[in-house]
Design a protein that fits this description.
This is N-acetyltransferase. With 303 residues, the chain is of the alpha+beta class. Helix content is 24%, strand content 33%. The protein is built from six helices and 15 strands. It has helices spanning 14-26, 36-44, 110-128, 152-160, 249-263, 278-286; strands at residues 5-8, 56-66, 69-79, 92-100, 132-135, 147-148, 163-165, 169-176, 190-195, 200-206, 209-217, 232-240, 268-274, 290-296, 299-301. The protein has an eight-stranded mixed beta sheet with strand order 6-14-8-13-12-11-10-9. Strands 1-2-3-4-5-15-7 form a seven-stranded mixed beta sheet. Strand 10 and strand 11 form a beta hairpin. The longest helix has 19 residues, at 110-128. It is elongated, with a radius of gyration of 21 Å. The protein starts with a strand and ends with a strand. The relative contact order is 0.16.
């Protein structure tokens, strides 16, 4: 077999890298893919991470190539060591994501490519001489963060390279908008639509008092990010005032959100909950959601 080579990413790799990214995205979120422009932009900066992105001092993208084909790739971040950087990120290095093809009959040495690329990543982190080494799988696509359970080949690579899961686990859920609770009026309750922290906010009011709200982000499927025109949104926030618990407001607000999402041309809605919060997960599943995957956040190099 031709020798494997690990080298810095070149712009000519953009189409193959995008294909590799989309293969991994497709196992996590149905019907979602990212464009070449999105991939290239994400290698330069992460505008959605408006708090942590300014702390990055160096970015490196490496690829493993064989027979002129990119068989694995990784993106690394180095965070500054000054006081402006948050304590958890200060003087740290991170494999922001590492992707490789699983072993196959037509590519029997994919594990070798992954191991060679990981060795290059660890060597780069060692040269940076950072305080802590982290790893993740945060791709520039909705709901693809942490290390999704759908990537056992990446998990195996991290674990045999000395990374350990030290953070939390989140459950990613999805619902068809048509499966959400119906949009119904509620006597004495009105809905006000405003701009919230994470998207469009729908707030329920009764007697001038806010009972709760739901926020939905409908900007996930903007065309410059996703090449397929399937409508996708996610729940940014869902909050019920303690005094209104037990009144079924969660389902009623989801019905209000569903009506708005249909007007937006959105057909699927994502939600995220901590795996330990069984009550929240039960509420969502009873409202039409189902578990899409689980993802493990917080991987630290502990050889």
């Amino acid at each position: 077999m031709p020798a494997l080579e690990v080298r810095p990413f070149r712009r000519a790799d953009r189409d193959q890298l995008t294909e590799l990214i989309n293969l991994h995205v497709a196992t996590v979120v149905p019907g979602v893919s990212v464009s070449v422009n999105t991939v290239l932009s994400a290698l330069e900066r992460q505008p959605d991470e408006f708090i942590t992105d300014p702390w990055v001092s160096e970015r490196v993208t490496l690829v493993a190539e064989q027979r002129d084909h990119v068989v694995a790739a990784a993106h690394l971040l180095r965070y500054r060591a000054d006081d402006e950087v948050g304590a958890d990120h200060r003087d740290t290095g991170e494999i922001d994501w590492l992707l490789c093809r699983p072993p196959a009959t037509f590519w029997p040495d994919s594990d070798e490519a992954a191991n060679l690329l990981m060795s290059a990543c660890l060597a780069r982190l060692a040269r940076w001489n950072v305080r802590v080494r982290y790893a993740s799988g945060d791709l520039p696509a909705p709901a693809v963060y942490g290390l999704p359970r759908n990537w056992p080949h990446i998990r195996a690579l991290y674990e045999r390279s000395g990374f350990r899961h030290v953070g939390d686990t989140e459950v990613i859920l999805i619902a068809r908008v048509t499966d959400l609770p119906p949009h119904k009026p509620r006597p004495g309750v009105t809905v006000q639509r405003t701009l919230g922290e994470c998207g469009t906010r729908l707030t329920a009011y009764a007697g001038g008092r806010a009972l709760g709200f739901i926020e939905v982000d409908t900007a996930l499927s903007r065309p410059e990010r996703h090449t397929r025109g399937l409508g996708l949104a996610d729940i940014g926030n869902l909050h019920i005032d303690p005094s209104a618990h037990g009144e079924g407001l969660e389902h009623w607000l989801l019905g209000q959100a569903a009506d708005w999402l249909r007007l937006c041309g959105v057909d699927r809605l994502l939600a995220y909950e901590a795996a330990a919060d069984g009550t929240a997960i039960t509420h969502l599943t009873s409202a039409g959601f189902r578990e899409l995957t689980r993802t493990d956040r917080g991987w630290e190099h502990r050889p």
